[in-house]
Amino acid sequence: MDDVEDTVEVTVTEHGAETAEIRVVGELTEGARRPLVRAMTDLMLSAPALKKVQLDTCGVTFMNSAGIASLVQLHKMVQPRGIELPLVVHSTTVARPLQLSGLWHRFTVVDRRDDGADVVHESTHRRTEHS
Predict the structure, then answer these.
(1) Bridge partners, residue 62, by sequence
(2) Domain assignment of residue 129, yes or no
(3) Exposure b/e, 28-53, CB count within 10 A at least 16 = b
(4) Domain-located, residue 102
(5) Residue 12: pLDDT over 50
(6) Which of 35, 51, 60, 125 supports an S-S bond with 106, CB 3.0-4.6 Å?
(7) How many separate domains does the chain show?
(8) What sequence ranges are listed for the domain STAS (predicted)?
(9) Tell me: the pLDDT tens digits for 104-113?
(10) Do the beta carbons of residue 37 and residue 68 sit within 8 Å?
(11) pLDDT digits 0-9 by tens, 35-52
(12) pTM of the model
């Protein structure tokens, strides 16, 4: 039986003590949850001054509801420490499910779907006790 984690590749690049990037290539499904959470946990433990982690989803070829749940889980992980988690999207593969689910507004999104300059959609989500 093939390992479900084989359908996704997660790489981390640190850009100094305060910023980093996590890049996802492949399918953003349940198989991506563990490597994503592991990458974020390792970053948070190794960089106590971390302020921003850009999540690059430009290489995502497929995303389902489990992938959306993984993104929400990452968002909930960084929120208590005040770490920004902008999502970089390049296609409707990621953008459309987030828009249809209403979660588009939960994240700051760097929209690279058009050939022009990046369009940044700021998060309108306000942290509440139950968010």
Answers:
(1) 27
(2) no
(3) bbbbbbebbeebbeebbeebeebebb
(4) no
(5) yes
(6) 125
(7) 1
(8) 22-123
(9) 888 899 988 7
(10) no
(11) 999 999 999 999 999 999
(12) 0.84
Residue with tokens 């489990």: 66
Q: Scanning the structure block, which residue is given the tokens 């390992």?
A: 3
Looking from the CA of 42 toward its CB, the CA atoms found within 13 Å total 14
Instruction: Answer yes or no: are the C-beta atoms of 31 and 73 closer than 8 Å.
Output: no
In sequence order, the β-bridge partners of residue 11 are 23
Report CA Rg, the chain.
14
Per the structure block, which two tokens stand in for 101?
Answer: 């689910």
Query: Cα separations (Å) of 86 from 2, 4, 22, 53, 104?
Result: 32, 26, 11, 7, 11
Query: What is the span of the domain harbouring residue 40?
Result: 4-84
Q: Return the structure tokens found at 60.
A: 């995502």
Residue in 59, 49, 123 with CA at minimum distance from that of residue 86: 123
Q: What is the spatial distance between Cα 43 and Cα 17, in angstroms, rounded to a whole number?
A: 10
